[in-house]
Specification:
- The protein is mostly helical and 413 residues long.
- It has 21 helices and 2 strands.
- The protein has 3 domains: 89 residues, no CATH class; 148 residues, no CATH class; 119 residues, Butyryl-CoA Dehydrogenase, subunit A, domain 3 (Up-down Bundle).
- A hairpin with a 4-residue loop joins strand 1 and strand 2.
- The longest helix is centred in the C-terminal third of the chain and has 32 residues.
- The protein is elongated.
- It starts with 6 loop residues before the first helix and ends with a helix.
- It comes from Methanohalophilus halophilus.
- This is Cytochrome c-552/4 domain-containing protein.
């Protein structure tokens, strides 16, 4: 039987982690709901350590009433915690990056975090048309297994944790990010975004999301035509981040939530699908502040604006086809290279808006600006006139040759 320990025992070696934990929500779990959780059996299973262990079928159940301590998340080695104290490196308590560890408590109708996050294991999930943090990258994008660790930074929890130690948007911290063959958790789980000892975000604000959801700063350079998920670049200079609108970050729109309804027993929403849900976002039931200025009807306004951007993109694809034909007709001419650069930039601007995925909502001004640029550049290629071919040297020599022959013939006559 693995004997239980007190957090102070761990503090002897892990003082930094202890100090962080000691001021966290986990350390204060007994005080939730004014301390009433200690007396409600259904609450103790996630707020009181001994009840948690008992519910999980563990043997190291102590008689004392304690909050959520080290032992809840770090299961003992086979030989027990004492063996770890005697020979720390030989007997290591479990360290897991899985979402299921957190999901043991963060579940059910009051806080269905694990149920919302785990879209991958639902019948409705379509890997071809949908994306989810719960989707294992080694299954969805197996080609990444043959790439370097730059992809690991955002495609796995093993990579995200060291990558986020550098808060800068394009700082991947690759020296500490493992190579693909050493990755254990290919999903983006709870601890990728939340530091488990503090239970707080690893980075505050939209920089957390922006560290992965960015296009690596790609620009229209005449050669680049593809850009992937430029969400940060689209959002960063938008009205939501520049002061022209009340500051609105990623989680404000992508994690719309509402509390459990004690009267109707309607399940809470925590926003851990990270989907944009306008009906909830602009609802009076939402925990967001959007309803203070916008009512439910504003969702239709958003949809109308998105439809206009979608129409513009489809129209541009027709212009792109015409531009492609015109460009091919210029192949071999002196103006081909400059028109190729214009064409590539036009494709880039169109793809930027399309790959952002918000259909303008992240930054309506920039979306329209880029689509205008794309349209102008495509049409500049279409409107370029094919140069009239001038006779070459051989043709001129041939003409002069014929004239000379004609002159000789006339002279003989």
């Amino acid at each position: 039987m693995a004997g239980a320990w007190q957090p102070e025992t761990c503090k002897g070696c892990h003082i930094e982690q202890y100090e962080i934990w000691n001021s966290s929500a986990h350390a204060e779990s007994l005080k939730s709901a004014g301390g009433s959780v200690v007396d409600i059996e259904s609450c103790t299973e996630c707020h009181v350590e001994s009840s948690i262990k008992k519910a999980w079928g563990r043997e190291d159940v102590e008689a004392t009433i304690e909050p959520i301590t080290c032992e809840v998340c770090h299961l003992p080695p086979d030989e027990g915690y004492d063996a770890h104290l005697d020979t720390p490196s030989a007997h290591i308590p479990e360290v897991t990056l899985s979402a299921e560890m957190c999901g043991n408590c963060h579940k059910d109708s009051h806080h269905p975090i694990i149920e919302e996050w785990d879209e991958y294991n639902t019948e409705s999930f379509d890997m071809e048309s949908m994306a989810s943090h719960s989707e294992p990258t080694d299954v969805a994008e197996p080609f990444i297994l043959n790439r370097d660790n730059s992809c690991v930074s955002c495609k796995s929890t093993d990579g995200a944790i060291p990558s986020l130690e550098d808060e800068s948007i394009y700082g991947l911290n690759l020296n500490d990010v493992p190579q693909p063959e050493y990755v254990e958790e290919w999903r983006i789980t709870c601890v990728a975004c939340h530091e488990p000892h503090s239970a707080e975000y690893r980075i505050e604000g939209s920089l957390l999301c922006g560290n992965c959801h960015n296009g690596m700063g790609a620009t229209a350079d005449g050669m680049t035509t593809e850009i992937r998920h430029p969400n940060w670049e689209m959002y960063n200079d938008s009205i939501y981040n520049t002061g022209n609108h009340p500051e609105t970050g990623c989680v404000d729109c992508h994690m719309a939530s509402k509390e459990y309804n004690d009267t109707t027993h309607e399940t809470a929403v925590t926003g851990h699908t990270f989907d944009y849900e306008p009906e909830l976002l602009f609802s009076s039931e939402s925990s967001s502040e959007c309803y203070d200025c916008h009512d439910e009807e504003f969702a239709k306004v958003i949809e109308t604006k998105q439809d206009l951007i979608a129409e513009r993109i489809e129209e541009l694809k027709t212009v792109q086809n015409n531009s492609s034909v015109a460009l091919e007709n210029l192949n071999g001419t002196a103006s081909y290279e400059s028109n190729l650069e214009d064409y590539n930039n036009a494709v880039f601007y169109m793809h930027f808006v399309e790959e952002d995925g918000s259909l303008g909502i992240h930054n309506m001004e920039k979306a329209n600006e880029y689509l205008d640029k794309s349209d102008k550049l495509f049409n500049s290629v279409i409107e370029t006139e094919e140069p009239v071919e001038q006779p070459g040297f051989e043709a001129i020599v041939a003409v002069f040759g014929l004239m000379f022959m004609f002159w000789i013939a006339r002279k003989r006559d």
